[in-house]
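Entry:
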Amino acid sequence: MDLTRTDFPPFWFPEEPLDLLPATPLLLVGWLEGTVPTRGPVEEVVLSTLFAAELRMHYLSDHSCGSHACALCVPPRHRPRVRHGDREVTPTGHGFYLVEHCGKAYVAPRLLLHYMVDHGYCPPDEFLTAVCDGRFVADTRPTVPLSPPPVQLPLWILRGAFTFLFTAVMCGLIWFLRGGRF
């Protein structure tokens, strides 16, 4: 079985804690490098659930720790197009799924669908059950602010700036009206 217990590096989590119990064991699934440990068919319901998770963006960002290319493809691909039936997604080698089920959390790369559909990878049954019966933990907040936060200046600074600008404009107007002399 290719389930490996792990602890997350601190840079993988968003600033706010995820909705997981502190003692939840974390298990790695599907982090493949060069070989496929187990091959076989995967049930349609598992693939449909993972396609839906990808399309609904139910994955976590690893905050730009770099992009991972599929080492099974020749040449390696960073954004493989995954087709299954009438569905198509293009997962990146960046980010991961976090699936919680029965007191455990499973961590799988976003390239998992590519590994399963294009390379015949079959994850452990325990994980397949978690995908169907568990829940995807996702950070729904944007990882990059869409606009800078508004600047809050103290009122005395705003009043002072307004007074200065008003005085400068009035002095300029008086100077102009007097023909360039005071």
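Helices lie at 44-55, 112-119, 125-133, 155-177.
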